[in-house]
Write a structure and sequence with these properties.
The chain has 300 residues and is α/β, with parallel strands linked by helices. It contains eleven helices and 13 strands. The strands form two sheets. The chain has a nine-stranded mixed β-sheet with strand order 5-4-1-8-9-10-11-12-13, with helices on both faces. The mean pLDDT is 95.
Length: 300
């Protein structure tokens, strides 16, 4: 079960991302389905999960981009509701020649997710193994959903992005938290500059409430703490074309692996493979690998 944002991504490619007050020439413009919630739903479905997505879209021309992408990935989308008179969430993404990106997000309909939407999850949530949450919808609804899933014994996975302060209650309801190094630094106050400091930050996060913390380190892989272990799982070396949504590919695949009963280390290796494949392709949801691709990658 995924409750989260659905965005349309407007992607500009350029040699160098502009600095403050600077204008640069772009070489390509594309429109892709995105949003951390929808990205993770597509990633999990393609990775072999049975996924239901819940959230809000606008009644504009861009919403069909998202509904089509969910359908093609096999994601159940009947809990994605339309908000009249509001634009679909959007993101403007600038990608440089190295594949690194800068992103500006406009919430749009994502900001209208309500308690009613969370309550509508009950029939699906009662039979779910994992609830995936992010922070691109109102915090009150993230907390409401986390509490409900926790009470039902459903594993709660939180991607704390974009980073904002988290309540003690929410951290107690979360089983697995998956920040990148910047988000881990924000949440712990500890400077995260590499594997060693990521280990410390992951341990700090577990002490704050979650059963397990997985710190995503991009090209350096991931560090996890929990289940009486702290370890580093290296990334796979690939040619990076576009790093957009690599963290979402990781999170979606991680949720599938956890739901299948894999250990945290095994789940991180599976997720690293999914993320590695995703950065070799352009776009967000369009870059997410299918299960057979991940399995072949891991055995090659």
């Amino acid at each position: 079960m995924v409750l989260g944002s659905l965005n349309v991504d407007f992607v500009v490619r350029t040699e160098v991302r502009p600095g403050p007050g600077e204008t640069v020439s772009g070489r390509d413009f594309s429109i892709y389905p995105g949003g951390k919630g929808a990205n993770q739903a597509v990633a999990a479905s393609r990775a072999g999960g049975k996924v239901t997505m819940a959230g809000r879209i606008g009644d504009d021309v861009f919403s069909s981009v998202l509904t089509k992408s969910l359908l093609e990935a096999g994601v159940r989308g009947d809990l994605v509701r339309v908000t009249g008179g509001v634009s679909t969430g959007s993101a403007v993404i600038v990608i440089d020649a190295k594949g690194e990106n800068s992103i500006v997000v406009v919430p749009g309909a994502n900001g209208t997710v309500s308690a009613e939407d969370v309550d509508a999850l009950a029939p699906v949530l009662e039979n779910a193994r994992v609830l995936m949450l992010q922070l691109e919808i109102p915090m009150a609804q993230v907390e409401r959903a986390a509490r409900r899933a926790h009470d039902l014994g459903v594993t709660v996975m939180l991607d704390p992005a974009p980073p904002v302060p988290l309540s003690k209650e929410l951290l107690q309801w979360v089983d697995v938290i998956t920040p990148n190094e910047h988000e881990a630094q924000f949440l712990t106050g500890r400077q995260v500059t590499g594997i060693k400091t990521a280990r410390l930050a992951a341990s700090d996060l577990v002490s704050m409430g979650p059963r397990c913390a997985v710190v995503k380190l991009g090209a350096r892989g991931a560090v996890y703490a929990g289940d009486n272990a702290i370890d580093h799982v290296p990334a796979y070396a690939v040619q990076v074309i576009d790093s957009t949504a690599a963290g979402d590919a990781f999170s979606g695949a991680l949720a599938v692996a956890i739901s299948e009963g894999k250990s945290t280390g095994e789940a991180c290796r599976f997720a690293n493979a999914a993320a590695a494949l995703s950065v070799t392709r352009p776009g967000a949801q369009t870059s997410m690998p299918w299960r057979d691709e991940i399995d072949r990658f891991l055995t090659s």
